[in-house]
Amino acid sequence: MKRIYLDHNATTPVHPEVFEAMKPYFLDIYGNASSVHEFGRKARVALEQARESIAKLFNCSPEEIVFTSGGTESDNMAIKGAAFANKSNGNHIITSAIEHHAVLESCHSLEQRGYEVTVLTPDAKGLISPDQLRQAIKPETILVSIMHANNEIGIIQDIPELAGVAHDLGVLFHTDAVQSAGKIPYTIDQLGVDLLAVSGHKIYGPKGVGLLYIKKKTNIRTLSHGGSHEFKRRAGTENVAGAVGLAKALEIGWRDMESETTRLNRLTSAFVNGVKNRIDDITIIGDQENRVPNTVNIAFEAIEGESIVLSLDMKGIAVSSGSACSSGAVEPSHVVLALGIPGALAQGSIRFSFGRHSDEADLDYILDVLEKEVARLRSISPLYSAK
Ligand SMILES: *Cc1c(COP(=O)(O)O)cnc(C)c1O
């Protein structure tokens, strides 16, 4: 059976060039980057080259890049690290209702330690406005965490504006940029953030590696203690192969961004038009102008998203409903709900996330299967009566 992967926001395959770049650091250059001998020195050189190449892309200094185990750790380090280090300045944190669980749960854990968290609700398109943020900032506010591109609906926030508001009022700004890396051209100075999280496996790099950008002089508390690795920001033997892979993945992401953006925009537009033409009673979720080119989220009335996921899977097509972290539980996506979509409709929302290997030639097959399966599920749904 044909297998079509439309779940690139959950994870991506490692790019062959990334795999090739990493290989020597498993087999030959396996030294501990902290060892003083030749084996260690060679590993150290690779690690620092990876850091430098990322710093060049981001237009920041290499000392501002800390390698981590992924997006989740980077978000935890940024939010808890900033909260703990700045406690004497206040205990208030602001985030948004459409964040990834890595951010929401980090904030939640701080609430249990006596911090106060304000969760901003986006408008119907999924956007947080600068005014809304300005009004939420209080004298006690120490950190704002708002994501760059959303993993479920693809919406892009105006990070330069939002970070500007926070800085005007002397507040640190963190952004989860896991879904924007390689999809939106940016440098750190353009975004104007203090902290920024990236993950390898969302951008055709390896799983289990990520980074946190920490602007020079930003006060954050170290969460993991041990050796003096990563500028004493994160203890633990460095994942040299992972860092090399992450750097390569970012380099390829930036290198191919223009052509991939054009290709994916065309592909997802054709997909959306196809769905609109063939299937009634659907809602396209979120702003269609302001989204990353690979992500489309559609709610199908009167069916459970989970049923669509399983039906499509039987036909070889991989998509997701809600966020991968909560699949298993049939709960509507917290992101779709935050846009004011009613619960029943949100239940039927599906994320289609296209990627490098998504082929226009597969579109007809995808649309055929989707049309047929939605019709079949609706024919057995007590909730559906065709208009
Ligand atoms: C996947 C994802 C994360 C978590 O990254 P991991 O490397 O899987 O821990 C965080 N934020 C967003 C927006 C994501 O899509």
Task: Compile the SSE list and pairings.
Layout: E1 4-5, H1 16-22, H2 24-27, H3 38-58, E2 65-68, H4 71-85, E3 92-96, H5 101-111, E4 116-120, H6 130-136, E5 141-145, H7 159-168, E6 172-176, H8 188-191, E7 195-199, E8 210-214, H9 229-232, H10 240-255, H11 257-278, E9 282-284, E10 295-300, H12 305-314, E11 317-318, H13 334-338, H14 343-347, E12 349-353, H15 363-379
Parallel strand pairs: 1-11, 3-4, 3-5, 5-6, 6-7
Antiparallel strand pairs: 2-8, 7-8, 9-10, 10-12
Bound molecules: pyridoxal-5'-phosphate.
Offer a concise description of the structure.
By secondary structure, this protein is of the alpha/beta class. It has helices spanning 16-22, 24-27, 38-58, 71-85, 101-111, 130-136, 159-168, 188-191, 229-232, 240-255, 257-278, 305-314, 334-338, 343-347, 363-379, and strands at 4-5, 65-68, 92-96, 116-120, 141-145, 172-176, 195-199, 210-214, 282-284, 295-300, 317-318, 349-353. It has 15 helices and twelve strands.
